[in-house]
Every structure is written in C-alpha cells, then in structure tokens.
Sequence to fold (552 residues):
Amino acid sequence: MKKIETEFKIKVEFYDIDPMNVVWHGNYVKFLEAARCDFLSKLDCTYMDIKDEGFAYPVAKMEMKFISPCVFMQNLVVKTCLEEVEPSLNFKYTIYDENTGEKLFSAKTMQICVDIKTRKTVYNAPKILLEKIENYEG
Amino acid sequence: MKKIETEFKIKVEFYDIDPMNVVWHGNYVKFLEAARCDFLSKLDCTYMDIKDEGFAYPVAKMEMKFISPCVFMQNLVVKTCLEEVEPSLNFKYTIYDENTGEKLFSAKTMQICVDIKTRKTVYNAPKILLEKIENYEG
Amino acid sequence: MKKIETEFKIKVEFYDIDPMNVVWHGNYVKFLEAARCDFLSKLDCTYMDIKDEGFAYPVAKMEMKFISPCVFMQNLVVKTCLEEVEPSLNFKYTIYDENTGEKLFSAKTMQICVDIKTRKTVYNAPKILLEKIENYEG
Amino acid sequence: MKKIETEFKIKVEFYDIDPMNVVWHGNYVKFLEAARCDFLSKLDCTYMDIKDEGFAYPVAKMEMKFISPCVFMQNLVVKTCLEEVEPSLNFKYTIYDENTGEKLFSAKTMQICVDIKTRKTVYNAPKILLEKIENYEG
Fold:
C-alpha cells in the first residue's frame, strides 16, 4: 500500500496542562484525533464524506507511549502515518518538538469500519477511501 | 411556580485540576451539567424524555462566579434550583464544600426550548416538563 | 485606556462536538482561554512572564452567550478585546464564522490579580503588563 | 504479589458523549484515572501521600480496547486490578455495564516512579506504597 504521512502542528494550551505542569496524558487523545482528521482532510476524505457513503470509523484499539513531557506553549508536530486500510484502518503517530526535533510521544490507533445502517463491521474499506488514497499526491 | 432544589455530590478528580493546583475554571461547566441532569433525573424528566416529545434545551446563556478555588479530592455539593420554566428554563447553582459548608462558586444558566423538527424556539415549555414539575414531591 | 483587539483562528474538532452535532457549550471556555493566551502572547506578556513577577490571574467571573451553534470543521475567528486592566483584567470576546462573518457567540471574563506569595488580591496591575500595553503597536 | 482489585462506579454524563451518541473514546482515560485514584484512596495511599514522600507516578504507557459503546446515563463499573508494583506500577482495568454485567472496555496502564527532586526514574517503589499494599485488607 502507498505510504502516506502528514504533519500537523499543535501549540500546547493552558487547559492541556496538569498540576505537574505537563500535558495531562489523556489530552494526547485529542492531539491524535486532530492530527487524524487533518490527515483525512488532506486526503480529501473526511469523516463526513465517509458518513455520506454510509460508514463510520470508531476507534477500536489504541496504544500510547509517553516518552518525554510536553509543556505550556510548546510547539509540537504530530506525524501521522497510514499503516493499513483493510481489514482495519491503522495509523501510527509520533509527536516531536517543533524546534528541537526531540521525539516526545508515539501512538497507534486501530479503527473498525462500521456500516451505519446495519451496525455491522465491514472488513473492506469504503470505495471512496481507497480511491482517495490511490489518487493522493501529497 | 413551585420551588424545587436538589443536591448533587461531586468529588474533584485529578483531571479537573490545573497547574495552579485548583479546578480549572472551565470544568465547572461539567459540574453544572452533571448537577442539572441529576435534577432532571430526580424530576423523572430527562433530556431523553424531552427529546422523545420532540424538544431540545440548548444552553443560551450562562454566568459563573468563582468565589474560592476547589482542590484535588475535595468533596463538593452542587445545589441546583429551578428558577423559571417559561419562556426559558433557568437554573441557579451554588457549590459548597461538603464538609465545611463554605460557598465556593455560583452560577446561572438559561436554556431555550427548541422544536427539533422545525429548529424554531418555543416559548411554552413541553407539557411533560410542566407536569413533572407539578407532580414533583421532592 | 488604549484599545487593543486581536484575532485568533480556531477550527472546530470532532472532540468539540456533542450529540446534537454542535460544539458542546462548555468547550467555548477553551476557545476563550486559547484566544486570551494568544492575546497575551501578541502583547509579549504571557502568564509565564506575569508569574515571573509574582502574580497570577485566575478567572473570577465569566458570562457567555450562545447565539448560533458551531459545527464540525467550521472555521472560527475569536475577536478578543481588552476592556479594563485595573482593578481587574476584563476581556470581551466575539466569535464569528471565518467565511460568512456571522456572529455566533459572545462572552466576557473578569480576572483578578493575585500575589502568588501572599495569596492576596492586588488591585493594581503588575508593571510589566501595564508597560506592555503601553508599548503595544498591534 | 498480593492481588488487589477494586470496583468504581461511573454514570455516563452528557458531556462524555460524542456525535455518534456514544462515549467519546478519549473520555475513557478520565474513567481510568478516576478508578485508579479511587483504588489508591482505598489503599490509603493517594498521589498526595506519595508526593509527600518525594515521588510522582506519571503514566508512561497505556493501551485501550473499545469493545462495545457506552451511552448517556449508562451505569458503569470499572474493575481496577493492580498487576505489578516494581519496576513499574501496572494496572489492568475492565469496564462493565452495572446492570447487565456486559464487558464493554478493557485497558492497561504502566506508570513510572519518578523522584520529584532529581527527576530520575526509580525502579523500587516508595516504601509507603509497598507497606500499604502489604497491609491492605480489602
């Protein structure tokens, strides 16, 4: 499969920070979702487009590794890489400090395609997604 | 109108706390929503029941006063008081420390009744809500 | 006092959206905080700079008006206007749709200056903040 | 090592729900944290007690499996089981529907002990934690 990787910038906000003065670990889930939606936008195939075809992509599994803490106003880059489309949609993510390039965090997500009407899992990706991946030029 | 007031208990979680070691001010909106839903449950008239009648109650206005900061693991009581039902659903809230009784926070919300189908504002409350208020025995 | 107004752009994320398919009302508090921090960055006087002078600025009061709902992937502009610096730091905010210019939301916040060591309220703004406002050129 | 398992109840709030009308996947991180803090409270050894000994326990790794979606007002039980204390603090979690007993979610977290002063990782657990585990009677 074609390897596609995008970059998404995030600035750490005050509301992301916990009493240890670092990003609260649960907030990385938001960073990953924002980066993934940005990936799909760049692919020209958003959740809305996929929904219009009758499918949804709930997250079924995720793994996160917290390598080095992020702090208030730090500029981050999330690299999002599509690993697999079928039978599930798998992404890999790495977060770096925008300035130093230091690796701070990594994660993986697995999303299952669900037919919205029947509520059943579908193991073939929607055509629209496969086509957009095929035609993606970066 | 009948005066109805309920109490709802909250324990401050680690994820509620900000770098100043106090509850982040935006998290009070969650406390108010939880207390309001608890109020409606006790009234036996949840958002689901209201939705089944074709109406939704989006928040149109809110005011919050942060009197004294709340800390990790603090036990809070939210007193929720129904102030008005028509033309809008108005609640008043006060948060106290469960142990000392100290007043820590107060707020008001105004919710507008919307007909889900037509998307129009409705100035008369849904019958189900009026009846439940009428029959509430505390 | 000098009138200073900044603009901050936000794209609505999936995690901002509630079951009514609009931004959950509590998430506007995050939008306001991000816009306010951006304002202070542009002024070259962040919370960190103020903290270095021994002061903090907790939010003491806020008011929000939800005019028209915001949806997934909508591009928003938050206009943040400094209204008062003493005896409290007051901002006014308006959120517009970036494309149509439609006004969607407005808010006010009042922040109290606190001496971090003594925990007492201070009614004169820290010098650094007054100077930065004085010297701001936009 | 002694096997310790606790149960913690959660009611799904409106603000936990996403546009698919199910709990947004990132909110499970909050459920796990609340359940873990409850575990440590029952052990009589909270983060505060550990901090007083000079140590913190940031989450270094986590894995989540989303088995079946949770809905608004659903009553959940989080079972939290201590798996390992040294060299890292590992918990396993399972979320069930309180009424049906259906398994909805499972997760694992790994936390690293950090000496707050030196910022270095410590591979032996703080004495206070080992003692409280030893003396726990359930």
About this structure: Residues 8 and 78 of chain D are 5 Å apart (CA to CA). The interface with chain C takes residues 14-15, 17-19, 21, 24, 26, 72 of chain D (CB under 8 Å). The longest helix of chain D spans residues 28-42.
